[in-house]
Specification:
The protein is of the alpha/beta class and about 400 residues long. It is about 35% helix and about 25% strand. The strands form four sheets. It has a seven-stranded mixed β-sheet, with helices on both faces. Helix 2 packs across helix 10 and helix 13 packs across helix 14. The longest helix has 19 residues.
């Protein structure tokens, strides 16, 4: 029996080696059979695999411009699936820090590290996450990339993370507060993220912008700025990536409100809330304050696509490039069809028709039936009616 097998036999609960990407991860067997993965004996969520696929390529894309390996920290590591995959699969990673209070989780992480033969890259610790980040706030101890992947909100860790990241570093954060960020509990959103949420067709984008807004406000407290690089959502989480800059002036003009008409598809984005719809005169409701700048960085997306990830990831990065420079918030085809009483309209017809009218338009990676455009509401509706005429 080899040493890894010997170590595996010492656990007091059933474990199994689970494959993700190119890595083998030891996890509690119950994590793969439970409807909701339990926190004990150690946390592992198999539904987060795609999120970790993206993380691997985000790190590779960022690290590609460095001459030496980057320093990566997974501060709420669980069994270490994200950090282990980064250390084993991402390019140009020199050192990976795995931190989690759960001793079982760190023991499983050690077993996985040995299984993948990457022990020379890893440093493990069992500290409270904010304490861990505070211990790495001196200039020589800071990280190039910090990943915050909690159960719930990342907000409690943002200030500490900003102290522990290098200028020009990437901060990734996950939220599983879907109901809060998508408008069911706007007052809770205000308390947690500093802005009101809104239940709209594009609530996934509202969620991303609230998270970026929360990070931006935290950065401003430290005289720092942010520049978003990428974001994506799935049913059970919202995920952002942003570069930390050394100038809070980078935030000017990037924080504001999104106002949505109660009666028509019209919406406005700007520094103040709009109370009355300029198109139909109905009352509006608003989300924010939140991030109203770009969600994606074109240079980053180009590099990510050039690294030739698997096809699904490559298509996502390429598609996101089409959204750069287009207005904040997207429209959903079925929602507009329902509102004006017409049959469902294919999204490609909508996008191509709007381009034919001289407008900018693209699909969005945030909703399979969503599209962005700088067209006015009347012309969007006219395109939908033209399909059924």
């Amino acid at each position: 029996m080899n040493s890894t097998a010997d170590e595996a036999s010492e656990f007091e609960f059933p474990i199994i080696m689970h494959r993700e990407g190119k890595s083998g991860i030891f996890v509690p067997k119950i994590s793969l059979t439970s409807t909701a993965p339990p926190m004990n004996p150690a946390f592992y969520n198999p539904l987060g695999e795609y999120k970790r696929d993206v993380l691997v390529h985000v790190v590779s894309s960022y690290a590609a411009s460095f001459t030496k390996g980057v320093r990566f920290a997974d501060i709420l590591a669980g069994v270490g699936a994200g950090g282990i995959r980064v250390g084993n699969e991402s390019r140009n990673v020199g050192c990976v820090f795995l931190n989690d209070l759960n001793r079982n989780a760190m023991q499983l992480a050690s077993l996985s590290i040995n299984q993948n033969g990457i022990g020379e890259k890893f440093i493990r610790s069992g500290e409270e996450a904010n304490f861990f980040l505070s211990n790495h706030s001196s200039m020589e101890e800071r990280f190039d990339i910090i990943d915050i992947d909690p159960f719930g909100s990342p907000a409690p860790y943002l200030d500490s993370a900003l102290r522990a990241i290098k200028i020009g570093g990437i901060l990734g954060a996950t939220s599983t507060d879907g109901q809060i960020l998508c408008g069911l509990y706007p007052n809770v959103s205000l308390r947690k993220y500093g802005g009101y949420s809104l239940n709209t067709d594009y609530c996934q984008e509202i969620a991303i912008r609230l998270m970026l807004g929360s990070l931006a406000f935290a950065a401003s407290r430290h005289s720092l700025g942010i520049s978003p690089t990428f974001a994506h959502t799935e049913k059970h989480y919202t995920r952002i990536y942003a570069m930390v800059t050394g100038n809070s002036a980078d935030l000017e003009g990037k924080l504001g409100f999104i106002s949505q008409c109660n009666a028509c598809p019209s919406r406005s984005v700007g520094p103040v809330m709009i109370g009355v719809c300029p198109d139909c005169g109905s009352n509006c409701k608003a989300a924010g304050p939140l991030w109203i700048g770009e969600l994606f960085d074109l240079q980053f997306l180009t590099k990510a696509a050039e690294l030739r990830p698997e096809r699904k990831l490559e298509q996502m990065f390429v598609s996101a490039k089409d959204e750069v420079g287009l207005p904040a918030t997207f429209y959903v085809t079925d929602s507009i069809s329902s509102r004006i009483g017409c049959s469902s309209v294919p999204i490609l017809y909508v996008v191509d028709s709007l381009k034919g009218l001289g407008y900018k338009s693209s699909r969005t990676i945030l909703d399979r039936k969503g599209f962005r455009t700088d067209a006015c509401t009347d012309d969007i509706i006219a395109v939908f009616r033209s399909y059924t005429d």
